[in-house]
Amino acid sequence: MAKGDHIYVSRGTYFHHGIDCGDGTVIHYREGESITRSSEPFFTLGETVRVKPYGDSDSPEMVVERATSRLGERDYHIVFNNCEHFAAWCKTGKHRSQQVENVAAATAIGGALLGGVFVAPAIAAAGVYGASKYLEQAKSAKDPAMVRSSLESAMAQLAESRKEEAAAVGQIQQEIESWVRTAKEAISRDREDLARAALERKYPLTHQLEQHQQQLEEITHLENQIRSQLALSQS
Fold first, then answer.
1. Which site among 41, 83, 102, 231 is 20 to 30 Å from 175 CA-CA?
2. Residue 195: CA count within 13 A, CB half-sphere
């Protein structure tokens, strides 16, 4: 382990993540509480420490600076803002959680995490949440270079989320159109039972489409805010 490493330990059913400060302490997001700085033994609780590898990440100084900047934050959310989101953001500036995305890949809906809410929009919401954090930092930063860096990072985060959402919208629209065509074909063959079944497959997709479209609207709203901030920072 070294200063700025993204480290994690097993907590039985999940992994707990943090940032090694290089002085025997770890900054991490305690579930249900706040971002805190603890001794390494307190963080590990006797479990084996693992270091998450990164092909590309920021300097150890920047990583620890980011982690320190959020000490005391009390905004934990298992999907939108968990300990892995925090550690990954400190390392790369990107607000992501592989644990959450693995659950999304393994299940069609997020019942285990979200009580039945579709997971894919939740993952996009995590990206929006990360961009919002950058925007907050930009508004409170004193250094013009830091303001611009935070705003540009927010725009990059939103661009990634927009790409994911646009792809999801396109895929769902194609599925809806396919079921509508199937229903029309069934009606032309006097098979109302098959037409009804096809339309029943369409309805949940329509709900999913609305969720993705709402996410796109939120992304657009944030992008407009950030563009205004960027314009002010250049004036």
1. 102
2. 11
Is there a contact between 228 and 147 (Cβ–Cβ < 8 Å)? no
Helix axis angle, 83-92 to 119-140, nearest 10°: 50
Burial of 13 (0-12, 13-18, 19+ CB in 10 A): exposed
Ramachandran sector of residue 139 (left: φ over 0; alpha: ψ -120 to 50; beta: rest): alpha
pLDDT (tens digit per residue) in 211-233: 888 888 878 888 888 888 888 77
Q: What topology is assigned to 1-93 in CATH? A: endopeptidase fold (from Nostoc punctiforme) (3.90.1720)
Residue 87: what residue type? Answer: A
The residues, ordered by sequence, that sit 6+ positions from 208 with a Cβ below 8 Å of its Cβ are 118, 120, 121, 172
Q: What is the pLDDT of residues 143-200, one digit of tens each?
A: 888 778 878 888 888 888 888 888 888 988 998 998 898 889 889 988 888 888 888 8
Separation CA 199–CA 204 (nearest Å): 10
Domain boundaries in the chain? 1-93, 97-235
Q: What is the pLDDT of residue 77?
A: 75
Which two tokens mark 233? Answer: 């920072």
Q: Determine the Cα–Cα distance for residues 49 and 38; give it in Å rounded to an integer.
A: 15
Phi and psi angles of residue 33, each rounded to the nearest 5 degrees, phi first: -125, -115
**What is the pLDDT of the chain when averaged over all its residues?**
82
Q: What is the pTM (predicted TM-score) of this model?
A: 0.54
- Identify the CA nearest to 215 among candidates 156, 169, 171, 155: 169
